[in-house]
């Protein structure tokens, strides 16, 4: 099983970051890889079981199901149902915690998935650096632009 873990610091209070990031379908507003996104069946984006259906800027199509969600822990977990990547059993968790010195936010995004040995390095790079790290940078930009 392949594992990816990326973390970062956002220069904004944790409540502000979570208020923005908690929307499971909100990634279309701030993540540079997302062209368009919607939650299927009109369900709320914080309802466990809801499915976000989205298209990437490169034309790829994904569907992801929300497996758990906690405002108390400021964390959610989801899995991929449909992906253009050659992966299986993908489960990811996104969460934020307060950094008390400086009133900043610690962000962590991690995933585990099955992938062939031949594809593992490339997929880990795509998920880790290309999706998670770029997403954390873009989230900070979006949150701080809100003022």
Automatic annotation (TrEMBL):
Family annotation (InterPro entries): Polyketide_cyclase/dehydratase, START-like_dom_sf
Domain of life: Bacteria
Protein's name in the database: Polyketide cyclase / dehydrase and lipid transport
Organism: Bosea lathyri
Lineage of the species this protein comes from: Bacteria, Pseudomonadati, Pseudomonadota, Alphaproteobacteria, Hyphomicrobiales
